[in-house]
């Protein structure tokens, strides 16, 4: 019998390792401390850190009694400004920790409904901390013995919609009108779900690829908790959490529901579906009875297709951003649509008839920072020119004459309005906001005298405002409680279009500047955003929501609807009083000290037993609060061989890693009896640097691997074995611009090229000479998810290196790839799969090697179904047919190539509700009459 719990520990530890994202370690980090929190921040962010402390203590005061949990230690909060996207995350592994991104939301995407962004974000993330950290009963007793042990955080092991839904439920405040649980957008999305058919729970459990994609756990989750509270009474959600928090057996979701509510989840889902229908179907019917005024659907891309602009009455540009291919800038004129250029996912545009297309999109600034920058696409040659680097310009517009650019820069959470030249250089500052102002969706007036934007101001929310360029001041166009966004000029600057939720659905409105009147001009079933119209006599184009996301619509002759939603701009200031979290006492700032959070919080015992080993030991792992320092440690005593074994691995951000491992190698005699147990000591060192990018990246890697083996225990009569050493120094250059789209069945476009040089000459080694390897992988999209995948590997060794070996089907897959795909082994890699041939054949071994593969990968179907318990599901299946050939040899050229062909069925299998990997069932036939064979195999991971 062989049982090694260390594998399980490292396996599950890696589940959550992807949550330990490092911030920029080059900054000077500091720490302040409040009653229940440590707040870590970089120089220049002290005021944000204090506000974070205020909001966090308020969240603790509000949420701790509801969830009935007091964390044993203070929670670490990291104030991060490394990304220009609004987000945050929380983890309870090792210790309670949350990273909060400073950048605020700047569009209608689900998180736009707040009165203070930071406070809403902290509330959501702190719900996660209290929920996931909460333990009681047997689970708490085990943690008292073993520390913060990953297996005994019961609430971690739930579907994402139960976890995210709870946080979204408590971020929502109906009275204040904030949070996704009451937002017009989420109501719109759920109405669309109902009209298309409510998704079954065995689909919602999974990380789906179909729409609404990543929003689904939040959308269904928050509605589910609202259903529970309304039908079963207040505090029922807290009772469910309380009951589940002592659960020592993971994934008992149905049992928990039965114990508290008398029904399992599947039975509750039927009642939940009926509740949704009763809540939304009457208003869907009532709205349709009024009569719809919505446009003709021009695109069928869905997902995030939006960002429209125009240059004349029937010429528009937009970003097609679907699930099957790259995001593209599209041009439509006189009913004819063509693709202009690739852009990044989430790109926004602004066009000028002569100057070109201005693109605002995220790009890596360096290894740690992703900032929003400006690009110009020439409309004639379709060439893209980058204007800014690390610019942090989240919104921009051409000037009326196309000779300048107005841009909104957001730095440290503060908005600045700047005037730039055509080289992206700042000419002057025009305006600076306060710490809570958010300025977005900037457009320039055709008259050249003003700018229009959607602006969030504390106490006022989201409104449309116009900036007078002469007076350098903002004037309100709307000034009320509703969310108004996506403004654009029409009628030569005499009117303004915008999208507003004031009717309960996002519709398009027109503001006439001359008489300051407003008219609703759409009545769509779902929602209308980002509208443009040359003048009132031309077609209206807008991004409309449907069951597949957003698409582009055209509405001819939009009406001026006479409804109760018509309004005049109010004469009074509707600013409402916002009670910010009260200031709390904090410690004086101190330099961040990594060791204060780097000590291990838990340990895990393991026992490894077979005929040759009897190891008893423990494992532990930890990271610091910034996620910069990470280590993993095992230590065991082998009672059979009377020595210690184990390993220690340390990594610094993505730059440096080092490790040591002591293991045991068992040798046997010709009869299979035990002969020798040898101590094997392995040391590795890796140093890397990256030139990253959204579309492509280059990584430079240097590594040292040293291994030494010596006798430990020998059977009677067995002579001493020679001490052996295997040392290697290597360098690698890796270029990667492969693309993997939302609904891809494989990497779909681009190439991954790896160039490696290794030598055994620097240190003592049984091998000698150098090894050079080129591994080129090319992916060609054939459309409709079909992919042609090609691979060419050339290995060349001098003198007497460790030989290359071909054969088998595993293709470098590591068991941990099931959790978190990691880099394939770079250095000292000599084994390569050649399907249809067994491993270890002497004909497929040599100091030189060539391997070529060609695969056609084709789609099957999207399934997205699974079981509640055990938590297993299938996302999609696909197939492939392949041919490949290879040779390993010692001469100047191969004497013979060995070829094969075969087919595979692949399924993307999901475990534990959130972890997905590919499983392959294949048949390969080796064509060589002597060593080729028909082989059926099953393995994890992609073939390459």
**Helical content, roughly?**
10-25%
- Going across the biggest sheet, name each strand in turn: 32-33-34-35-36-37-38-39-40-41-42-46-47-48-49-50
Specify the number of helices.
12
C-alpha end-to-end distance: 34 Å
Average pLDDT confidence is: 90
CATH architecture of the largest domain: 6 Propeller
> What's the number of domains?
3
| Biggest beta-sheet profile | 16 strands, antiparallel
Q: Tell me the β content.
A: 35-45%
What CATH calls the topology of the largest domain is Neuraminidase
Number of strands: 50
The class by helix and strand makeup works out as alpha+beta
Choose one word for the global shape.
globular
Oligomer status: single chain
Could you walk me through the main structural features you see in this protein, from its secondary elements to its overall organization?
- The protein has a 16-stranded antiparallel β-sheet with strand order 32-33-34-35-36-37-38-39-40-41-42-46-47-48-49-50. A six-stranded mixed β-sheet has the order 4-5-3-2-1-31, covered by helices on one side. Strands 6, 7, 28, 29 and 30 form a five-stranded mixed β-sheet that branches.
- It is an alpha+beta fold and 944 residues long.
- The radius of gyration is 30 Å and the shape is globular.
- α3 crosses α5 (160-171) and α6 (184-196) packs across α11 (265-289).
- It is 16% helix and 41% strand.
- The two termini are 34 Å apart.
- It contains twelve helices and 50 strands.
- The relative contact order is 0.09.
- A hairpin with a 4-residue loop joins β32 (604-609) and β33.
- It folds into three domains: 36-289, Neutral Protease Domain 2 (Neutral Protease, domain 2, Orthogonal Bundle); 296-555, 6 Propeller (Neuraminidase), CATH 2.120.10.30; 740-755 and 768-944, no CATH class.
């Amino acid at each position: 019998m062989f049982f090694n719990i260390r594998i399980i520990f490292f396996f599950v530890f890696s589940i959550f390792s992807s949550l330990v994202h490092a911030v920029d370690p080059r900054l000077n980090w500091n720490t302040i401390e409040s009653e229940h929190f440590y707040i870590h921040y970089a120089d220049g962010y002290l005021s944000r850190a204090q506000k974070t402390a205020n909001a966090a203590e308020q969240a603790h005061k509000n949420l701790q009694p509801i969830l009935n949990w007091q964390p044993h230690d203070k929670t670490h909060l990291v104030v991060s400004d490394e990304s220009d996207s609004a987000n945050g995350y929380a983890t309870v592994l090792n210790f309670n920790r949350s990273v909060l991104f400073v950048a605020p939301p700047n569009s209608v995407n689900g998180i736009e409904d707040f009165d203070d962004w930071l406070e809403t974000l902290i509330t959501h993330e702190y719900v996660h901390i209290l929920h996931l950290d909460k333990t009681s009963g047997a689970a708490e007793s085990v943690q008292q013995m073993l520390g913060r042990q990953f297996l005994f955080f019961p609430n971690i092991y739930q579907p994402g919609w139960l976890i995210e839904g709870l946080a979204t439920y408590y971020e929502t405040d109906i009275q204040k009108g904030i949070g996704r649980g009451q937002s017009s957008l989420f109501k719109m999305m759920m109405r669309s779900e109902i009209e298309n058919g409510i998704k079954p729970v065995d689909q919602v459990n999974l990380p789906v690829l179909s729409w609404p994609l990543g929003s689904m756990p939040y959308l269904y989750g928050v509605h589910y908790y609202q259903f529970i509270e309304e039908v079963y009474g207040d505090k029922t959600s807290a009772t469910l959490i309380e009951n589940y928090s002592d659960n020592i057996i993971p994934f008992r979701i149905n049992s928990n529901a039965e114990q508290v509510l008398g029904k399992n989840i599947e039975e509750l889902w039927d009642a939940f579906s009926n509740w949704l229908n009763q809540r939304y179907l009457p208003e869907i019917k009532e709205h349709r009875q009024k009569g719809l005024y919505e446009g003709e659907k021009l695109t069928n891309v869905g997902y995030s297709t939006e960002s429209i602009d125009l240059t004349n009455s029937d010429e528009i540009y937009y970003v097609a951003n679907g699930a099957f291919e790259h995001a593209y800038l599209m041009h439509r004129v006189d009913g004819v649509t063509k693709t202009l250029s690739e852009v990044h996912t989430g790109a926004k545009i602004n066009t000028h008839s002569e100057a070109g297309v201005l693109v605002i999109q995220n790009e890596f600034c360096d290894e740690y920072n992703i900032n929003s920058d400006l690009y110009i696409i020439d409309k004639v040659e379709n060439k893209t020119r980058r204007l800014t680097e690390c610019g942090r310009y989240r919104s921009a517009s051409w000037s009326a004459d196309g000779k300048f650019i107005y841009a909104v820069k957001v730095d440290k959470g503060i908005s600045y309005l700047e005037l730039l030249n055509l080289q992206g250089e700042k000419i002057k500052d025009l305006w600076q906001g306060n710490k809570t102002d958010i300025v977005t969706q900037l457009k320039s007036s055709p008259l050249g005298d003003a700018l229009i934007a959607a602006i969030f101001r504390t106490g006022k929310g989201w409104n449309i405002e116009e900036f007078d360029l002469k007076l350098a001041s903002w004037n309100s166009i709307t000034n009320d409680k509703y969310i108004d966004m996506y403004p654009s000029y029409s009628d030569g600057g005499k009117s303004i279009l915008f999208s507003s939720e004031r009717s309960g659905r996002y519709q398009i409105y027109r503001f006439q500047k001359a008489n300051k009147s407003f008219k609703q001009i759409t009545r769509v079933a779902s929602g209308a955003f980002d509208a443009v119209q040359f003048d009132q006599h031309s077609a209206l184009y807008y991004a409309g929501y449907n069951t597949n996301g957003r698409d582009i619509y055209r509405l001819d002759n939009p009406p001026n609807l006479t409804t109760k939603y018509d309004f005049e701009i109010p004469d009074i200031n509707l600013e409402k009083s916002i009670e910010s979290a009260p200031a709390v006492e904090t410690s004086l700032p101190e330099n961040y000290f990594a060791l204060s959070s780097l000590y291990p919080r838990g340990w895990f015992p393991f026992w490894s037993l077979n005929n040759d080993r009897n190891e008893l030991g423990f494992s532990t792992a930890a990271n610091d609060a910034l996620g910069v320092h990470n280590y993993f440690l095992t230590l065991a005593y082998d009672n059979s061989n009377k020595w210690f074994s184990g390993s220690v691995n340390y990594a610094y951000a993505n730059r440096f890693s080092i490790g040591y491992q002591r293991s045991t190698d068992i040798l046997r005699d010709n009869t299979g009896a035990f002969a020798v147990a040898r101590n094997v000591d392995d040391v590795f060192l890796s140093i890397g640097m990256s030139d990253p990018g959204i579309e492509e990246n280059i990584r430079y890697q240097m590594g040292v691997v040293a291994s030494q083996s010596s006798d430990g225990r020998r059977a009677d009569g067995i002579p001493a074995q020679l001490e052996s050493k295997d040392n290697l120094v290597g360098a690698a250059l890796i270029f990667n611009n492969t693309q993997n789209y939302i609904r891809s069945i494989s990497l779909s476009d681009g190439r991954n090229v790896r160039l490696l040089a290794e030598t055994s000459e620097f240190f003592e080694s049984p091998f000698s000479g150098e090894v050079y390897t080129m591994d080129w992988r090319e992916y060609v999209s054939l459309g409709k998810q079909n992919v042609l995948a090609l691979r060419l590997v050339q290995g060349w060794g001098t003198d007497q290196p460790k030989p290359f070996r071909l054969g088998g089907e595993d293709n470098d897959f590591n068991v941990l790839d099931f959790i978190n795909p990691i880099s394939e082994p770079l250095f000292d890699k000599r084994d390569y799969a050649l399907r249809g041939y067994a491993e270890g054949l002497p004909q497929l071994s040599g100091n030189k090697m060539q391997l070529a593969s060609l695969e056609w990968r084709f789609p099957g179907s999207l399934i997205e179904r699974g079981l509640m318990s055990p938590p297993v599901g299938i996302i999609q299946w696909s197939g492939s047919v392949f041919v490949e050939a290879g040779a390993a040899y010692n001469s100047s050229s191969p004497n013979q190539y060995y070829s094969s062909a075969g087919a595979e069925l692949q399924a993307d299998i999901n475990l534990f509700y959130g972890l997905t990997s590919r499983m392959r069932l294949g048949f390969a036939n080796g064509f060589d009459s002597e060593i080729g064979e028909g082989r059926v195999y099953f393995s994890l991971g992609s073939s390459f």
